[in-house]
Amino acid sequence: MDSLPILDRLEMGHRLRRLRTELAQTLAERWRARQQDLSAAPGEPVSRAFDEDAGEHLDFLAGAVEGGSLAAFEEYARWKSRVLASRALPAADLVQDFEDMEAWLEARLPSTGKEAVTRALRAGAQAAAEADTEIPGIPAGLSPLQAVQEQFLRVILRGERREATRLSLEALQAGHSIPDLYIEVFQESQYELGRLWESNQITVAEEHMATAVTQSVLARLYPHIEPTSPPQGNMVVTGVEGEMHQIGAHMVSDLFEARGWSVRFLGTNVPRAGVVQALAEHDADLLGISATMLFSVPNVVELVHAVRQKFGNARPRILVGGATFRLAPRLAGELGVESCVGDLRQI
Amino acid sequence: MPSILGRGPATRGLPRPGLEVLVMESTELLAHYLQTSAVIQLVRATPEGLVTECNQAFAAALGVPRSELIGRPIWGWLVDPDAQRLRERIFTGEPGLFPQRINLSDAQQHPYTLEALLSLDSQGFALIGEPALSKEHALRNELLLLNNEFAVLTRENARQNKDLRKAQSELERVYDELKSSHWHLKKIQEVLPICMICGKVRTEEATWDDLIHYFKQNSDFLSHSYCPECLARVEADLEPKEEAP
After folding, report:
1. What is the ipTM metric for this complex?
2. What is the DSSP letter of A340?
3. B128 to chain A: nearest residue by CA?
4. Which residues of chain A have a CB within 8 Å of the CB of B60?
5. Would you call A212 an interface residue with chain B, using a CB distance cutoff of 8 Å?
6. What's the rounded Cα separation, in Å, for the pair A206 and A213?
7. More reliable by pLDDT, B57 or A39
8. Residues B116 and B141 placed together within one structural domain of the fold
9. Does residue A316 have a cis bond before it (omega within 30 degrees)?
């Protein structure tokens, strides 16, 4: 996988995604056979889970191949194992799924790049088999905002928007800075929400509600952002097409604003043409692209290409961030863009 | 049919003898869980139907620790009218997935029915709940997108307000400057009291100031230069003097 050029990897990712429906069917059939459930006809309810699971396996496999990162698929396998275990579903099914995928894909992929797919699936199967199903806890920090963070998490889980805003404004009045609040309270709370969902303690709906409350708090805090540096220029921040996670890019936008940039935040799942238009309208010096899911790689590549084609290589500078680039660290270099991954303190 | 938690006719009427009603502390929790997860295994049971494993959310919905459900028979929970036939089929060892309903009630004793699948394999039984791709599900995704959009618009609105406030404060500064200049202009246009002897003028603070100093202080119109007579005098001063013989 390491030696494959990016264009070959993108081609392989595209091929894998085209096999989605067929693969879902195959996994469902093999699962039924294992369950000795010969009576269920194709298309019966139980097969839908395989559409989702097989689709997810394939998306992450394609993303890992496109991103040139074996470790990315291993991380997906470990995460999926934990999610299954916390829902009382056997992680052994996952190992079997990957083995079934390898056998089935063997005859359907061209020789260029096939080895990369096989290696990723084997690494994934091994990671799933050895995965520690205990969800890693977040160590209690020494942050002076620790108490605020715990309280904030409780209120956003209850959907109490006003209380969450009040807590944040109080912390601000007590002398804490906007970056501290974003990093110590909001970012930490989002990590904890992810952990709670992963360990099956909250539902997706609860997680969405809590995130929505945090987003509304961010909007209320915006007028309190005072740049600490002289004006740096104009910036546009966007999530790529197909990307639904928005709050990270929102916080990044505000923190760049605090560093003196005039930031227009477009949200996420923004069509390429819309981003290009916003760059021209805002006369942008810098474009921030956010991608959190591994399967966003092709959309990132296309967006970078569209921007370069329209504006050339010199301006705007392009900065990429989000979990995709943490999982596929070589991607930014291959695309000739700057990378900013990890926590918000790096800004 | 996808399963969904709701009131069901199968639980109405007189309960069958031996039927056990599972009272749920929170119907919402399980409903959410089923709406937001993939296929989930609610319980696993031995071939005799005794619970060996139980899903955390299922136990939480019932408001009991998982351990309390272990060892209990699942037969009493099922409300399928053909349960007897199902049992016979199962005891013949025929594997399969059998649609079933689970008999539940909420804390107010209102009956709820959970549609599920009873799966028979070589290890025993599994009761499987399944998420519903319902209108509610689609609506939730739609709401998520709207919320994202709302957050962007709120931020953009706040950004534009901030820019507007900045522009407004700049406007106020320029206005103050203009106002001050205007006051001075008016003052200059007004008749200034001037001393008939020394030529000093009376200031707005009722002090007497040198005319030139006053204008230098209160007007941007004054600049330094030479009048023709003074220029001639200065030039004459600068010319080298002839030495006396």
Report:
1. 0.70
2. -
3. A46
4. none
5. yes
6. 11
7. B57
8. no
9. yes
Q: What is the mean pLDDT of residues A273-301?
A: 94
Same domain, B109 and B24: yes
Statement: the pTM of the whole predicted model exceeds 0.80: no
| Whether CATH 3.40.50.450 fits A146-223 | no
Q: Which value, to the nearest 10 degrees, does the dihedral of the CA atoms of residues A163, A168, A174, A180 take? A: 160
**What is the CATH code of the structural domain delimited by A6-130?**
1.10.490.20
What is the predicted pLDDT for the residue at B182? 85
For domain A227-346, give the CATH number. Answer: 3.40.50.280
Helix (H), strand (E), coil (C) string for B167-200? HHHHHHHHHHHHHHHHHHHHHHHCCCCECCCCCC
Computed over every residue of chain A, the mean pLDDT equals 86
* Token duo for residue A105: 């894909």
Decide: helix, strand or coil at residue B73: strand
Closest CA to A54 of A82, A22, A86, A81: A22
Q: What value does the CA radius of gyration of chain B take, rounded to a whole number of Å?
A: 47
In the structure encoding, which two tokens stand for residue B166, read together?
């900045």
pLDDT band at B130 (very low <50, low <70, confident <90, very high): low
The DSSP element (H or E) to which A347 belongs, if any, is none
Instruction: Pick the range with the lowest mean pLDDT from A32-46, A222-236, B11-25, B82-96.
Output: B11-25
CATH (domain of B65)? 3.30.450.20
pLDDT band, residue B109 (cuts 50/70/90): low
CA distance A287 to chain B (A): 17
The shortest CB-CB distance from B38 to any of A52, A212, A222 is to A52
Note whether B151 contacts A203, CB cutoff 8 Å.
no
pLDDT at A1: 60
Residue B95 domain boundaries: 5-133
Look at chain B and report how many structural domains it folds into. 3
Nearby residues of A304 by Cβ (< 8 Å), 6 or more positions away? A289, A318, A335, A336, A337
Helix (H, G, I), strand (E, B) or coil at B18: coil
The encoded tokens of residue A295 equal: 């399967």
Mark yes or no for CB contact B95/A37 under 8 Å: yes
Q: Does B225 lie in the same domain as B117?
A: no
Helix, strand or coil, per DSSP, at residue B95 = coil
Q: Verify whether the Cβ–Cβ distance A88 to B40 is below 8 Å.
A: yes
- Residue A76's SS3 state is helix
State the virtual CA torsion across A325, A328, A332, A335 in degrees, nearest 10: -130
Yes or no, beta carbons of B156 and A246 under 8 Å apart: no
